[in-house]
């Protein structure tokens, strides 16, 4: 089929939800059904109250509000959606394996494999399968093998269409993508399938921004893009350590080098370390692939990006402990922010989790305020880390902290001022805009003295806070 009228997407998460909502909004002539095994998640996508959508993204509520019920549907009936659609996106999770072969490194492809098996079983006419999930190079080959294992005389065409949206700006990114990448086979059927997907995007993306490549190039481009982006953050973070020792200012250095058009100014913001569900996972996946293809020098080169990031998170936690006279046990440390970046409720791999864990090793009392993250989420992030530490992450010594201790030592607030009252120190972990506009004099007055602030995002007004009397420590400012 070259004119697509029905699309299904398996996986209603941070990628499947927003991407399909935008496709549906921009292509009213296409029926888009997003399916998921997670009943609660689908119920939340269908909630009449648009503030209850399972993914928080600026502008997403409006897009869903416009298209849902018209040509956008959320459902748990995976078989029906597969059966009806001419084109099926796979947007399931591909987390780092936590067990067995490739533990702590390789991508776990079990959800992708399950989808492929289900499609093979249910389909009874030709389908185009689109890899939206981020996958290791040559996964399309495995998917094809599974699809073709049920010999029903049906033709499947597999395309790779990696997603480049960033959380917090997903809708904007989907409206104005720098590029849309579609990889497919070079044969005639492959080209027809590519054209069908190009036609979908061409409804709102200028044609010259839609690039088509071979399958393997497309799959590898996604891992490469994330590796390059993360590499820039680790590079500037490595320099932040040197700034702190020498009296240079990392923001000034970033500005000075970023004005060189060959370097560019984006992704040079020094921080407590990058988080999110993608960067670490995708680099480790790349490292694993390089080892698989016997390229240890290449593997080690990229692994260093993750090692430096572990170091940056550790450096931040250690600095808090050092400055608080070498112990935080029993002290109230307040975290502003828990999400991995602003404007999202996503906490996966957030630097805050690791910094909290390291402070908990010393039995600090951690009080948290984040505008979008719930107490359940914070606790479950910390409990999860105890069970699934990457054995490679050796930045600090640790022992397992029980969930009872976590419940006792970690308090989540819904009011920032109560979170900061009587605190020994405040640490900024996420760059939420509202943190800049708090009444810092009022905060200072209620805190224990000396009043320490550790700004892990360099967003607070240094002159003002120092004048008030805070003992302020920023990233990369000597
Ligand atoms: P997610 O965990 O938010 O969502 C995945 C969903 O798939 C879950 O709701 C899960 O229940 C569902 N699922 C898993 N197996 C299923 C099955 N067999 N049938 C039906 N539903 C199933 O993950 P995400 O953040 O949306 O990421 C999805 C993929 O996109 C990953 O490969 C990720 O690397 C990639 N990606 C993510 C981002 C991002 O910003 N989060 C950006 C680009 C690419
Ligand atoms: C990333 C990629 O940007 C996106 O293209 C891909 O599709 C998915 O992975 P995401 O993880 O959602 O997106 O957010 P991003 O804006 O890249 O931020 C990732 C982490 O890096 C965050 O913790 C952020 O705070 C941090 N970061 C980003 C910095 O520390 N400094 C920077 O200059 C930029």
Automatic annotation (TrEMBL):
Keywords: NAD, Oxidoreductase. NAD(+) binds at residues 11-16, 36, 41, 92-96, 133-134, 167, 278-281, 348. One of its GO terms (biological process) is glycosaminoglycan biosynthetic process. It catalyses: UDP-alpha-D-glucose + 2 NAD(+) + H2O = UDP-alpha-D-glucuronate + 2 NADH + 3 H(+). Pathway: Nucleotide-sugar biosynthesis; UDP-alpha-D-glucuronate biosynthesis; UDP-alpha-D-glucuronate from UDP-alpha-D-glucose: step 1/1. Substrate binds at residues 163-167, 222-226, 262, 269-275, 340-341, 457. This is UDP-glucose 6-dehydrogenase. It comes from Mangrovibacterium diazotrophicum.
